[in-house]
Amino acid sequence: MKMKEEQFELIKAQLKKLTSQYCFYQKKLEGINVDDIKSQEDFEKLPFTWKGDLREAYPLGLRAVPEEEIVRIHSSSGTTGIPVIIPYTKKDIDDWATMFSRCYKMAGVTNKDRIHITPGYGLWTAGIGFQNGAEKLGAMTIPMGPGNTDKQLRMMVDLESTVLCATSSYALLLAEEIAKRGIGDKIKLKKGIIGSERWGDKMRKRIANELGVKLYDIYGLTEVYGPGIAISCEHECGMHYWDDYVYIEIVDPKTGKNLPDGEIGEIVITTLHKEGAPLIRYRTHDLSRIIPGECPCGSKYPRIDVILGRTDDMVKVKGVNIFPSQIEEMLKGINGASSEYQVMIDHLNGKDILTLFVEIKDDANAYEMEHEIGAAFKAKIGIAAIIKPVAIGDLPRSEKKSTRIYDNRY
User: Fold this and answer.
1) Dihedral of CA 155/156/160/164: which sign?
2) What is the CATH classification number for the domain harbouring 329?
3) Please, which residues bridge with residue 87 across strands?
4) Total domain count for the chain?
5) C-alpha dihedral over 357, 363, 366, 369, to 10 degrees?
6) What is the per-residue DSSP string for 104-154?
7) What is the pLDDT along the chain (410 residues), one digit of tens a residue?
8) pTM value?
């Protein structure tokens, strides 16, 4: 993707500001003369920012404005190490709400909708991001947060919610509960805005069919505002991102070299206006591609593909690299298999053993499924696996992000 002149000017201004004051990036970019950056190619020689950098800046080392300008703190979960603390100014909060409001509009949501928000609140960016955007749009907001499915469904029925905001895992749980209780005729949902984790086509179709809604993918991450920096449109051909707020590159995860439009690689983000904690060339670990050409919807905003996986989702078993997306693609072609699966990897008697638990439909034959899935796994993934068919609903559902692969070898 060719950098626009206005993007380049905003990045240059950001770099000058950051290198002229005491902050994280003054040290990170030490020895670099901003005046020597005269082109996109020069910009692409700047060092990447990694999550490890952000953890080392804990707690408030990322702050790039005086403390009195910080109005809010958000944080990553910290499940894999020291949490990342992101400070926000009032302008950051307003800009984020503007982007999120655009997301709702792109999905056809209006101020006449009733937006039912199930992601978590607090330090996590999800819940409050959905809420700020809805309020900016002027829609009725129902800030449920996660959990208490009985109350979720009661409010959904009584308040006649029309838009569901959720992770794919929790949307599936709600869809299954609605079907189980036979209350589908009382649900007024029209749209689902789904974020925070990747999900396959099979899961998408189940949720859409069981809830009777049109689904939209939303993208974002705590380090870069939160959810709301990109969303799919009604044509479901990628996600439009707000290139007047973020500049996106796609790089080869191994070499760090920029890839041409259309090629799959790692998303790298530079913020154009962020004040509290700006980011320059931040490696997200998310895998996608820039989709060339114009979208049928006519939007001027460029597109990235839906998230295809993460560089850190990959596991190596018996010398073979395995991504969740490969398993989802394999299951998509098997009629009796559901969208839900779980992988357990163990090391026993000197050998790696991979066990794949798959939910199968009620009318499917477990013995036949075991052999069909086993043969498909060997053919498409390249190694043998122990297949364990289970009933629909047997695998755990999550209010947050689902864990698909458990590696018990370490």
Assistant:
1) positive
2) 3.30.300.30
3) 73
4) 2
5) -70
6) HHHTT--TTSEEEE-S--TTSSHHHHHHHHHHHHT-EEEE--S--HHHHHH
7) 899 999 999 999 999 999 999 999 999 999 999 999 999 999 999 999 998 899 899 999 999 999 999 999 999 865 556 889 999 999 999 999 999 999 999 999 999 999 999 999 999 999 999 999 999 999 999 999 998 999 999 999 999 999 999 988 899 899 989 999 999 999 999 999 998 666 777 788 888 988 999 999 999 999 999 999 999 999 999 999 999 999 999 999 889 999 999 999 999 999 999 999 999 999 999 999 999 999 999 999 999 999 888 877 778 898 888 888 889 889 989 999 998 999 999 988 888 999 999 999 999 999 999 999 999 999 999 999 999 999 998 998 766 666 788 888 86
8) 0.83
The tokens for 329 are 């693609």
- As a whole number of angstroms, the distance between CA 239 and CA 217 comes to 7
Is 197 in contact with 221 (CB distance < 8 Å)?
no
Nearest to 216 by CA among 107, 315, 295, 290: 107
CA dist 408 → 82, 280, 353 (Å): 22, 36, 10
**The two three-digit tokens of residue 110, written as one number:** 């209006």
Classify residue 367 by burial, with Cβ atoms within 10 Å: 0-12, 13-18, 19+: exposed
What residues make up the domain containing 373? Answer: 315-407
Q: Cα separations (Å) of 193 from 116, 267, 394?
A: 10, 21, 25
Q: Contact at 8 Å (CB) between 360 and 366?
A: yes
Residue reference for tokens 């949902």: 189
Q: How many angstroms separate the CA atoms of 175 and 139, rounded?
A: 23
Q: 234 with 165, same domain?
A: yes
Distance separating alpha carbons of residues 300 and 51, to the nearest angstrom: 31
Q: Evaluate whether residue 362 is within a structural domain.
A: yes
Classify residue 135: in a domain, yes or no: yes
Same domain, 300 and 223: yes
Q: Give the Cα separation of 405 and 249 in Å (integer).
A: 28
